[in-house]
UniProtKB/TrEMBL annotation:
Pathway: Pyrimidine metabolism; UMP biosynthesis via de novo pathway; (S)-dihydroorotate from bicarbonate: step 2/3. Its EC number is 2.1.3.2. Residues 150-299 form the Aspartate/ornithine carbamoyltransferase Asp/Orn-binding domain. It comes from Candidatus Merdiplasma excrementigallinarum. Heterododecamer (2C3:3R2) of six catalytic PyrB chains organized as two trimers (C3), and six regulatory PyrI chains organized as three dimers (R2). Carbamoyl phosphate binds at R51, T52, R101, H129, Q132, L264, P265. Gene3D superfamilies: Aspartate/ornithine carbamoyltransferase. Pfam families: OTCace, OTCace_N. This is Aspartate carbamoyltransferase. Residues 2-141 form the Aspartate/ornithine carbamoyltransferase carbamoyl-P binding domain. Keywords: Pyrimidine biosynthesis, Transferase. It catalyses: carbamoyl phosphate + L-aspartate = N-carbamoyl-L-aspartate + phosphate + H(+). InterPro entries: Asp/Orn_carbamoyltranf_P-bd, Asp/Orn_carbamoylTrfase, Asp/Orn_carbamoylTrfase_sf, Asp_carbamoyltransf, Asp_carbamoyltransf_Asp/Orn-bd.
């Protein structure tokens, strides 16, 4: 039995097989429409979510399975003080696989150690978000045709942005990837990512403050929101939230084939005027998330479709 806590839980060959399977699901959805009949996924979301929770549920429904779970800690026995370990032991009696989002780093890992079913980390605090990373990889590979030989700008909240941390961890394993880390001083990438991931892997990267200075060289721009829920101080959030706004003027500085990704939800860091730009790929990205999670469910449940 395998779990997914981090993108590094799969090697590059295994990641490629999941992405190949997701691409086949996109091309041949009917082939997989009954693959998980009789199977159930439990979505255990201790934090609010729209895309991640609903895409997991859509993925299992598209595979012919069913869904149970909760969408906030208040609607679960966590409100009564039940531990994650006890919750997953109970859920293991009801479902075949579980996806857990939790505000505390490491909570899904704790659950996986006590679980009788595969557990997927659907986001733990500011730490990791591996299924978003699989979604990002599929989006990049589908739209750019490759996962190596790219210059990628990561912009916004790089300190608390778990999607950024997971994506860097995954992409350092591909050849000739250069990272341009665009953030204010207060929201720079954490030291452990800079030292233990980037420098340890001799990765090419630079840190800049101005998006306008970086955007002309990028093959891909990954925007993130400044996350209000990660701030202890309202004043700090208000000061940071409008630091970067991607608009038509900034897009005019970019390459004709530069793609814009965003894990969503956005607040105002991408102007709605950018939505009609053919380089804006963030809504396609959300669709790819369903195919990737379908592929991941099949892989962890060891369901083979001929």
């Amino acid at each position: 039995m395998r779990h997914l806590m981090s993108p590094l839980d799969f090697n590059v060959d295994e990641l490629d097989k999941i992405l190949d399977l997701a691409a086949d699901i996109e091309a041949n959805p009917q082939k997989y429409a009954h693959a998980c009949e009789g199977k159930k996924i439990a979505t255990l979301f201790y934090e609010p979510s729209t895309r991640t929770r609903l895409s997991f549920e859509a993925a299992m429904l598209n595979l012919g399975g069913s869904v149970l779970g909760f969408s906030s800690a208040d609607s679960s026995s966590a409100a009564k003080g039940e531990s994650v370990s006890d919750t997953i032991r109970v859920i293991s009696c009801y479902a075949d696989i579980a996806a857990i989002r939790h505000p505390k780093e490491g909570a899904p890992l704790v659950a996986s150690l006590k679980s009788g079913i595969p557990v997927i980390n659907a986001g733990d605090g500011g730490h990791e978000h591996p299924t978003q990373t699989l979604t990002d990889l599929m989006t990049i590979r589908s739209l750019k045709g490759r996962l190596g030989h790219l210059t990628i700008g990561l912009c916004g909240d790089l300190k608390f942005g778990r999607t950024v941390h997971s994506l860097i961890n995954a992409l350092v394993r591909y050849p000739d990837v250069t990272f341009v880390l665009i953030s204010p001083e207060e929201l720079r990438i954490p030291d452990y990512v800079r030292e233990d991931v980037l420098r340890k892997n001799n990765q090419k990267f630079k840190e800049v403050t101005r998006l306008e200075d970086a955007i002309p060289e990028l093959d891909l721009l990954y925007m993130t929101r400044v996350q209000k829920e990660r701030f202890f101080n309202e004043e700090d959030y208000v000061r940071m939230k409008d630091f970067y706004i991607l608009d038509k003027q900034k897009m005019s500085l970019a390459k004709p084939d530069m793609m814009v990704l965003h894990p969503l939800p956005r607040v105002n860091e991408i102007s709605t005027e950018v939505d009609d730009d053919p380089r804006a790929a963030y809504f396609k990205q959300a669709q790819y998330g369903v195919y990737v999670r379908m592929a991941l469910i099949l892989t962890l449940l060891e369901v083979k479709v001929c």
